[in-house]
Amino acid sequence: MNVFVLCTGRCGSVTFDKACSHIRNYTSAHESRADKIGDARLQYPANHIEADNRLSWFLGRLEQKYGNDAFYVHLTRDRLQTAKSYAKRTKSGLIINAYANGILLERKEDFDMLNVCLDYCDTVNSNIEAFLKDKTNKMNFSLENAKEDFGTFWQRIEAEGNLTAGLEEWERAYNTSDRPLNKVTSKPVSVRLAEKAVRLVAKFPSYLRNA
Question: Residue 135, class by beta-carbon neighbours within 10 Å (0-12 exposed, 13-18 middle, 19+ buried)?
């Protein structure tokens, strides 16, 4: 059985994949086929768990290929917190920029980006809810209740492996947004990349920095 984790993004999908890596009888990945088109986009191996927020734009094709034969997880996070996380990434976030400039089309420079991000969250979550309306094998999964929900998920898909290690992954932070809300930077890309590299090196243990 295939498992698909559907979500807006910025709500724990990376952590979900990390937790699933401790399951023995399923493979798991995060956005593993996001660079594919055509039939290849949804060609996942059997007994595979895929977490990919972009699948919310492929729901019709997901229905055609997997329909009611898969297990679906609707992963959510507090709506405002999700939108704030996206708003911090508007200078580098591909999805929000695509939504604001490509889907909405009439975006004006004075748009409040937090409202755009909230609108994106509402659109994606409503699309997922409509898709799951007639599905038999599904569950809602809240980031705020991650440990309990992951235990339920483990049972629902009859997972085998190290549940304790999987639950411990929810105590770690992955792919966080640590920038101030709506921060605007005019620095060249090369400068920002260099500064990021310095910050990354600073986080290395001393024995690695001095190697």
Answer: middle
